[in-house]
# Entry
Amino acid sequence: MHPQSPPPVTFGETPFTRSKRRREKIAFAVFAGMVACIVIPLFLIVGYLVKEGAPLISWDFLTTNPVGGMRKGGIWSALLGTFWLVGTSLCISAPIGVLAAVYLNEYAKDNWFNRVINLAVVNLAGVPSIVHALFGLGAFVLFAHMGRSIIAASLTLAIMTMPVIIASTKESLAAVPRQFREACWNVGATRWQTIWHIVLPNSISGILTGVILQVSRTAGETAPIMFTGAVFYRKIEEGNFFAYGLADQCMALSMHLFTVTTQVTNAPHALPFAIATVLLGFVLMVNLTAILLRSWLRGRKKW
Amino acid sequence: MVTPKVQVENLRLSYGPKEVIHGISFHIEPNEILGIIGPAQSGKTSLLRCINRTIEFTTNTRQTGTIRVDGEDVSQMRDVYALRRKVGMVAPLPVGLPLSIYDNVAFAPRNAGVRQRAALDEIVERCLRQAALWDEVKDRLDSLGTKLSGGQQQRLTIARALSHSPQILCLDEFSIAIDPVTTMRIEDVLKELKKEMTIILVTNLVQQARRLAARTMFLWNGEIVEIGPTSEVFSDNPKDRRTYDYVNGIFG
Amino acid sequence: MISSRSKLSLYGEKAIEWLIRICGVSAIIFVFAIFFFLFREGAPILREPGFNLWRFLTSTEWYPTSMSNVRYGTFALIAGTLSVTGVAMLIAVPFGLGAAVFVSEFCTGKLRESLKVIIELLAAIPSIVWGFIGLTVMNPLIQTVFHVQVGLNVLNAALLLALMSIPVMVSIGEDALKAVPDSYREAALALGATRWQVIYRILLPAAKNGLLAAVLLGVGRAVGETMAVLMATGHAVNVPHSIFDSVRTLTATIAAELGEASQGSPHYRVLFLIGILLFTLTFIVNLVADLVVRGINRK
# Structure
């Protein structure tokens, strides 16, 4: 008795494969839907902000001071304040942060002390912004007797951004393969010569991207500057780039949005939208620049 | 008696708890080629890294014993970078630095203070010729060192090692990434170079040691099984039975 | 010629190394400095007669400016923070991890790059702008959609926090999913599994450490958020009974009241004490997340 031959194999559609494909499509739709639920409202909201605020935005708006109890006029004093805060704080946090990362990645031996430093850095990055405000108040405004001033606020912002700069710089440095360093040491180059000639030039793009991203973060923060140097209102000279001194208190774009929204009664409807649009526009432009810089430089990889 | 160029006394090396070199002692005469043969993980590379003190870049190592270069204890040398310029090192994996080919070879002389273009040109050409790479790259010295083929990068590494005029040249399995013909060319260069410098040739290719080395050392599991004139080590009656077995491929 | 030059460069090298070392140690100094200064301003309240730490943490009566009967109970504020964070995570975790799955498994090339850019830009929106959106967009939206009187409540803030934490979750979650070797996917597909089965049965369990870290980091972000919740939660100090109740979070309380508290007064010190509480909370959450992420990278 011979065994029955198996049925011929076909690769056509069966109900099973049809239902499989349907389930695949459903899965795709569900996940795509989730993404859409995030992305679409984002576009709608940003679009609404811009639509409501755009009519007020003009060159005058950016270069004249607010008047009439901040209900009319422009945002010059706030814009300049933000500029000084961002610039000063980055001049402090970027060099120290980059050098700290160089130490952690290039010099530090793998012992408990340096592991603690690494842990400290990572967790410093997660501290809430209001806690930074309290720290800035206690340390710079009061203890160091700087009073509420641009310098106190900038130092507070610098402490806020430094851990992130350290972390992203470390990542860029670590991306340079170890064998390049070893090849340099083998020909008698010192650690610093190796860093200066090989490591830094090949990680500078990542470092720069990290620093640029902190520019936008600094510009958008409100809590750390609220109690350390930013004020609701201050009159300064229009058109003068140096109208603020380091010991002065200043207005800031983020603070101004808060003020106009919550402290100013009967403000024209479009005004806070305009401020929000300017702030958002600046932040998104800076971030987009950093992102484009990152992908352009990634294409020019040297190994 | 001539001071040995390199003198190793009772060297012990541990990576963490594991000892990899168990108290070896030997010396190297000036202007000789010493071949070091032995299976993988015998401590050959670690030994070289102790000589030029790049072992210090590895954390958690412990080293005892003395290594003398020209009679001077290397661990007592204040200027370790001068030591590393005195000892040229060619690692087994080819590495082209992300600089132009010219800058790859000019890197060490520039660090040492050589600035004039003419002097650098001379060094670059000489070293690239000695590394049997000049003809292939002489028209594109500006191109990136990292874009060369593996074999070319290995020769570039050799050129870099020669660029600071070392007195001792350490070659750690230099022919791994290179084809046999080019290997022969470099072996010819080594025979010429030994007139100017002392050469330590670590190799997996036993026959390479036979061709080039005046004396050969068989290192196995961190211990010197045998060291002596090459003819003796490769003969039918070396001092140690294990040498005969390894050389003839019975193990390893 | 060479030896005198190299002596100079040896000293120069040492000097640079010391400069770099100082910068490196500065990081750890700052963590301790933050704790030190918070403590310096806040701790004195612990020794004040009449101040009870237990009551501070468990009482719902927050009347810091009362003339006659000052009470510093933060339980309602803690409840505010937890409720807002909790609801935010209920929204953010499925959407965030879902988006991570989509970006990692369902799309390639240009679409993937564009989505990643959009999500990164989402992360860049400043919290004050989110607060503004909460006030002007979410507020009326919630009022009309859910037919409630007040749109400044737990739901409002939770929606904002969700949108703020999602980018973090997507980026870390995507890293975690990318770390799962392709061989897992290929093996499963070769056995006839659908994409969904591969994700559900193989990838999510394999990446669970990283996904957990992603969620924890999102939580850390939400707990620490100040301006957005300040503007979107209303100003009611009470334990919420529904997502339509107004609340106050710990962060918003500090921001709202620090301006009026005179320096050195008990109210002022209590606010710093809340700051210590927040610092400790977020420190622990971030530490755990970091250790979990380190656990994956070590594999």
Strands of chain C lie at 62-63, 71-72. Chain C touches chain A through 84 residues (CB under 8 Å). Chain C has two domains: 2-47, 75-298.
